[in-house]
Every structure is written in structure tokens, then in C-alpha cells.
Write a structure and sequence with these properties.
about 0% strand, about 500 residues, membrane, mainly alpha
Length: about 500
């Protein structure tokens, strides 16, 4: 009788050379990530267009009221938070493939529904939009633990990091797609009310495509063998995928049963995985705080110092033209920072390892914020240098923490809790994002009226990054190890 880590099908997967089915699994999981990123990023255009269309007659024409903006942000982040936890848990209960299909269906249906939001008044339209967007983001949040678990459990141990990082890098493609669609649609759709609806409906296409593609692959062998406890079926599925013959015996139920009885947060679980769960969730939380806070600060500083041409809602520029202008600027920033960072993470993750990228990324982000804070008076008159150094933090964030805190949770925990623990870590990151966004937005631009206030905020971000680097010390290196042995590795 075989122990779980001695099953032929799992050993075959670990040793398999990279072939077509690896690329197919990466394409399926990556398309889901792309759809999720697209449907999150289009909120930037939504806020501008809704304000222009429905609040043109207010005291501040064209500006979306704060309560309406907070409602849309709340629907987005609460839905994503719920999706991370609920579908992470469900993925360990009913299977990766089936649960992934549910998340993609939610994204496809409610992305289209968001574009069809209805109502006789502005508040009615916003109410239906918030409802649809909440369920859209439940699907967005759920796709994260499922997509990464699917590719991790399909990949071989030698190139697993490359494939997981490549799937995560599809978020960068989704970001760029959101800006490209906004640019393209704004060139053919003349009315702002139709423009934001078209941008939303377009988000259903990649989600529907991923939903269809996922039918081409069976359930992952690790779920079937170790969670559903049917290694013969797993061997039969993988024999078809790998075009080879895998002979498997029944799994001895008496072996590994103690491990199966461990509940999440039980004493046994905490002894073996507690520190790893704390480290991965803390690192992701701190990253969420600093990354989204940096975005808010940068936008406010651009407006304050007039480092870029700032278009107010009352300006002569039309809504469609404003969206095209903003989309072009954001696409340029993404091409210079986030996307090169994602690409480099794919290249380096199985060369330098996860831990070095994680620690190095947090270290560079810490140093960048310290230099910006210490020499803030100098940077106020040297905008190009400020933006370049700020962009360096975004670049190394994508190379390091944004990718590696996505990879670590799926590799460190056993198959029966893999989706759940990844969902918890991602939910912690979402909570950090909420703290970063609402904590900074709630004070408004008044926090930045003095150089001292801005400098202090940058020092706080440096400290947050430093704490993230400290928590990363407790995350072990997982490069090149089988998923069934990683949990025995010490940091």
C-alpha cells in the first residue's frame, strides 16, 4: 500500500517534462486571472463616467459623491473578500475544477449584468450596479485560489514556480486589456452612458472563454488522489492527459488518516503550519496596505504639484475624451512598472527562488520609500526623479512580494487545505487594500497640504514594507520541492 507522497501518479506529475497539457492548464488558469484583473481595474473608468453621466447637475458637476464612490469601492472589496474565503473553502470541499467553473460563471454573468444596470434615478442605477458588482467581485475573489491551485497541482516540481508566476502575470495582461478596451471603446462609442456599460460587458468575454476552456482538462490528480481518495481515477485521468500508462494501487486509508483529521486552526495544524499561515497572511496584508496606499498618495501628489495635466470634471474636455486620456496614461505607467515586473518574476522565480525575490522586493520598496521621505523637499521640484523612484517600488513589488505572496500559500499547505489557506492569505491582502484605500481616502487631500504630512506618510509606508520583509523571513524556500514534501521544510 502506498503513502500519499509515494503514489505513482504524483511522482509522474513531479517528473513530467513540460508539454502541451502544462501550457493548456496555464492558459485556462491565466485567462481566469486576466478576467479577474480586468473586472477590478475597470472601476477606475466607472467612477469618472458615472459622475459625468448622473451627477452633471450637482454642486460639483461631474464629480461622483463620496458616499456613492465608497459604496462602489465597498461592493468591490467586500465581494472580493467574500469570494476569497468562500470559494477557497469550497474548492477543498467539492473540487478545484467544479468550483473554478462557478467563479467564472459568476464573473461572466454579473460582468454583463453590471453593464445593464437599470433604474429611473441615479441612486437606483448605483444600487443595482453595486448589487451586480458585489457578485461579480465574489467571482473575482474566488478565481484567485482556484486558478493558482489548479496550475500548481498540474505542474512538475522543476518548473512549477514559472507556471504559477506566469498565471499571476496574466493579471498584468488583464490590467493592460482594461486600458486597451477603454481606449478602443472610447474611440467608437460617442456617449458616456453607453461607454461604461460597454466596458463592463466586454469583461464577460474572457470569463466565458475561461469557463469553456476549463472543460478541456480533468480534475487535478492531487485533489482526486489525496482529497477524494481515489488514486486509480487520478491515474486514469493523468494517463489520458500525459498520453502514457500510469498504474496505481489503492491508497491505504489507515496511512495519512491522522493528517486528514486535522482541522483548520486545530492544535496539530497550528504546530505544523501555524507560523507559515501567519507569515503568508501577514506579508500579503502588509503588501495590500502599502501597495494601494502608494497609489492613493501618487494620485494626490500628481494633483497637488501639477506633475501631470489634471482634468477636473468641470473642464471642457468631454467624458469620453477624459477616459481615453486617463486610459492612455495608466497604460503607459503599467507598461513601465507592473508588467515588466511580472515578466521578470516569471524569469527569476525558479532561478533565484521565491524567498530571495520576496525579501529583495520588500527591501527595495522600503529603501525607495525612505529615500522619497528623507529627500521629499528635493523631489517636489524634481517630478521625473520622484516618479521614477516611485515606479521602482511598483516594479520590485511586482517582481517580488506581489508574485511570491501569491505563490507561497499554494505551495506550503496540504492538498485538503490548499485552496482554503490561499483564500485566507488573499483575503488578508484584500483587508490590507481596504485599510490602505479607505484609510487614505477618508482623510482626503488635506493630509497632503504640508510637506511634513506627506513625508510622514512615506515613512509609514517604509515601515510597513520593512514589517513585510520581517514576516517574509518565516516563509521557507519551496523551489524544486514536491508539493507533498514542502510542508516539512523549515524557513
Amino acid at each position: 500500500m502506498a503513502r500519499p507522497h509515494q503514489l505513482n501518479v504524483l511522482a509522474t506529475l513531479d517528473r513530467a517534462r513540460t508539454q502541451r497539457y502544462h501550457l493548456a492548464a496555464a492558459a485556462i488558469a491565466g485567462t481566469g486571472c486576466l478576467a479577474a484583473a480586468y473586472n477590478q481595474l475597470n472601476l477606475a473608468f466607472l467612477l469618472k463616467l458615472i459622475g459625468r453621466v448622473y451627477y452633471a447637475e450637482t454642486a460639483t458637476p461631474g464629480k461622483l459623491p463620496d458616499d456613492a464612490a465608497f459604496a462602489l469601492f465597498g461592493a468591490t472589496y467586500c465581494g472580493t473578500f467574500v469570494g476569497h474565503l468562500a470559494f477557497g473553502l469550497l474548492g477543498d470541499r467539492i473540487g478545484r475544477r467544479r468550483t473554478y467553473g462557478l467563479t467564472l460563471a459568476l464573473m461572466a454573468v454579473f460582468s454583463a449584468a453590471s453593464g445593464l444596470s437599470f433604474g429611473r434615478t441615479a441612486k437606483a442605477v448605483l444600487a443595482t450596479l453595486c448589487f451586480f458588482r458585489f457578485w461579480l467581485c465574489v467571482g473575482v475573489g474566488g478565481s484567485s485560489p482556484l486558478s493558482v491551485t489548479i496550475i500548481a497541482e498540474y505542474a512538475n516540481k522543476r518548473t512549477r514556480g514559472i507556471f504559477i508566476a506566469a498565471v499571476h502575470a496574466m493579471e498584468g495582461a488583464g490590467i493592460l486589456l482594461a486600458y486597451t478596451v477603454a481606449l478602443g471603446v472610447s474611440s467608437v462609442v460617442p456617449e458616456a452612458d453607453y461607454l461604461w456599460r460597454a466596458i463592463f460587458v466586454a469583461g464577460a468575454v474572457p470569463a466565458a472563454l475561461a469557463f469553456y476552456l476549463r472543460t478541456k482538462l480533468p480534475e487535478t490528480a492531487r485533489y482526486t488522489a489525496l482529497v477524494a481518495r481515489d488514486p486509480k481515477r487520478a491515474a486514469a485521468d493523468m494517463s489520458l492527459v500525459l498520453c502514457t500508462s500510469i498504474q496505481e494501487q489503492e491508497l491505504n486509508v489507515s496511512i495519512g488518516r491522522v493528517d486528514d483529521e486535522w482541522g483548520l486552526f486545530s492544535v496539530q495544524f497550528m504546530k505544523r503550519h501555524g507560523l507559515q499561515l501567519l507569515a503568508t497572511t501577514s506579508a500579503r496584508f502588509l503588501l495590500g496596505v502599502t501597495y494601494y496606499s502608494q497609489i492613493i498618495i501618487l494620485n494626490v501628489l500628481f494633483a497637488k504639484h501639477e506633475w501631470v495635466h489634471h482634468y477636473s470634471p468641470a473642464a471642457s474636455m468631454g467624458a469620453v475624451q477624459e477616459v481615453a486620456s486617463v486610459a492612455g496614461a495608466l497604460a503607459l505607467i503599467a507598461l513601465c512598472g507592473d508588467i515588466p515586473g511580472y515578466i521578470l518574476s516569471v524569469v527569476l522565480i525558479d532561478v533565484l527562488g521565491r524567498r530571495r525575490l520576496l525579501l529583495g522586493g520588500f527591501a527595495v520598496m522600503t529603501l525607495s520609500m525612505l529615500v522619497l521621505a528623507t529627500l521629499y523637499d528635493y523631489w517636489t521640484s524634481h517630478a521625473a526623479g520622484f516618479v521614477a523612484l516611485y515606479n521602482l517600488a511598483f516594479f520590485f513589488g511586482s517582481v517580488g512580494p506581489r508574485t511570491t505572496t501569491f505563490v507561497a500559500p499554494v505551495e506550503l499547505f496540504p492538498a485538503r487545505l490548499r485552496c482554503t489557506c490561499h483564500g485566507i492569505a488573499m483575503a488578508a491582502g484584500r483587508a490590507g487594500a481596504v485599510l490602505g484605500i479607505f484609510g487614505f481616502l477618508s482623510k482626503g487631500a488635506d493630509r497632503y497640504t504640508s510637506a511634513i504630512g506627506t513625508r510622514n506618510e512615506l515613512f509609514v509606508l517604509a515601515g510597513t514594507n520593512f514589517l513585510g520583509m520581517l514576516m517574509s523571513l518565516f516563509i521557507p524556500e519551496t523551489r524544486g520541492a514536491s508539493l507533498e514534501f514542502i510542508r516539512l521544510v523549515k524557513p
